[in-house]
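Lab manual, section 2.4: Encoding a predicted structure.

Procedure: take the sequence of the chain (554 residues), apply the prediction step described in section 2.3, and record the output as C-alpha cells. A sample record is shown.
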Amino acid sequence: MPNSKTSFSGKVWKILSDGKNEDLIQNLLKVRGASRDFFDLKIADFAGIADLEGAEKLLAKIQEKIAKKERILIFGDYDVDGITSTTIWFLVLSFLGAEVSARLPHRVEHGYGLKKEVFDECVKHDAKLLIATDCGISNKEEIAYGNDLGIETVVADHHTCPAELPEAIAIVDPKKHKKNNCTQDLVAAGLAYVLGSELLKSCPDISEKENLLDQILTLACLGTIADCAPLIGLNRAIVKEGLEAIRRNPHVSFEALALVSDIDLKTITSEQIGFGLAPRLNAAGRLDNPHLAFDLLRGKTVNAQKMEKLNQERRAMMRESIQEAEKMLATKAVAPLIFLYKKDWHPGVIGLIAGRIAENTNLPTFIMCAKENGEIVGSARTPKTFHAAKMLQNNKKLLTHFGGHSEAAGFSLLPENLSKLENNLLKSAEEIFCDGLPVPILEIDTILSQDNFSKKIWDEVERLEPFGVGNQKPIFLLEKADIRKIETVGSEKKHLKLKIKIGMGDFSVIAWGWGGQADKITPDEKYDLAVRLFKNVWNGRTMCEMEMLDMRKS
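Recorded output:
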C-alpha cells in the first residue's frame, strides 16, 4: 500500500501491512513470508545440505590428495567472505593432515579471481590440486591453462554462473544447484562450512574436532553477514548458531577484533559484526594485504591493531573520495545510470563509493579507477531491476575480468574500452527505465498503534534477530508523533535528536545526518516518523530508543 505523501528525504513510503487484527510478531512474520518456525531454525534441520551437485566429486578429490600426501593450494578472495572461506578450508584440511597452503590475491596488484600465474605457482611449489573458493566460476580460460599444466582444480564458488562453465574436476556453486533451494543463498564461507563439516565426519568426536566445528561455524557466520547474504533459511541458522558459538566460546581472533571495536562478545549481534568486525577485516584486503586478516583469524592477534589502523585510513579515504564523486556527479547531466572514473581513486574504496551513491540515488552506479599498469578496475552497485553481473556478462568482450551478483559486481578493462562500456550500459539503462527513473521507496513493515505502545515492543522485535539482508530490522510508522524537544547533536551538529511523547511515555529519537533538517520541524505540528527500535545500554542502564530514517508532515 504505497503512500504518496512527500517525505523529507523525497522517498515514497510503502507500508507493507497496516497490522490490523494481528499481534505484532505475527504481522512481522507475515511481511517476511515466514512462519513461526522462523524462530527455531537449526542447521541440523536442513537435511542433505551437502548433496549439492558436484559436492561428492569435490570431496572425493580432496580426500584422494590428502591420502596421497599431495600438496593442495587454496585460492580465495580479498574480501571477508573470501578470507573466511579460505580460512575454513585451511583449518579443516590442516586438521585432516593435508599438505596445504593458502593464497589470497592483492586487490591492487592481482585483482579479483584466478590468474594464470596462480597455476604457475602451483607448479613451482609442486601443488597438485587447487581449491578455488569465492572465485573460479568465471575463470574458464585460467582453469584450462591449469589443466594444460597438469594442475587439477575444484571450484567452491557462489557467484552467478556464466553461460560457459570452466572445465574443472568438480564445481559446487549454489547458484548452479536447482534442486536444493535451502542452499541457493549460501556464500563461499557458508559453502566451505557445509563441505568442511562433511569432510570432518570421518574423524572421531573428540574435543579438538568440536572446537574446530565451533571455529569454522563462527567464520561462516562472519562471512555470511559480511557478504550481505539473505538471513533466511540455512543462512539464518548458520548466523544464529554462529553468534551463539561466539558468545559461548570465542576464538582469540574474535576477542582481539572485539577489543579494538569496543564490542562485548557476550552479547554480540549480527549488526555489530556487519558494522564493527567485518569492516576491520575488510580493511586489510582493501588497503593492504588480505593475509593480515587470514593470519589473524588463525590466531595472530597482534594483527587486530594493524587492521584498526587500516580501517581508520579507509574511513578517511572514503569520505574524501565520496566528496569528489559527488562533485563530479553534480557536473553531469541527469541520466538513468551513474558512470564515474577517476584515475587516482584507491581500488579498495571504489565499491564503498558505488554503494553510497547507489543508496542515495537509487540508480545503477559504476565507479572506476586505474591500476599502476593502466588497467581500469571498477565496482558496480545496482537496484534489483538492473542485474549487475548479467550486464557485465553482456559486455564481456570489453572486459578483462568480471564477476559478481545481481546487485554488486566487480570488473576490469583496458582504457580504450571505457567509453564503449559506458555507452552500452547507458543504453541498457535507458531501455530498462524507459518509463521513468526508479522512484526511491522506503518500505515500512507496519504501523505502530500509540494506544498499545509499550517498552515490551522492543523485546518482541529482538525475537526476530539476527537481522540483515532478507530479514532487515523492522521499520515502523509512528503516525502523528507529538514532538516535545528538537536539538542537533554531535561535534559538528550533524545529527538530530528528538524527544517524542507516545502514550504515557517519552522516548528519545536519533536521526543520523539529519541535523540540517532541524529548522524545518516545528513542535506545534504533527509528524509521521519512520523508525527502527533499539536498546541503548549505558553505565548498566538499558534505555528503549528509536532511530529515525525519514519523516513527513501528518
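Check your result against the sample. The chain has a mean pLDDT of 91.
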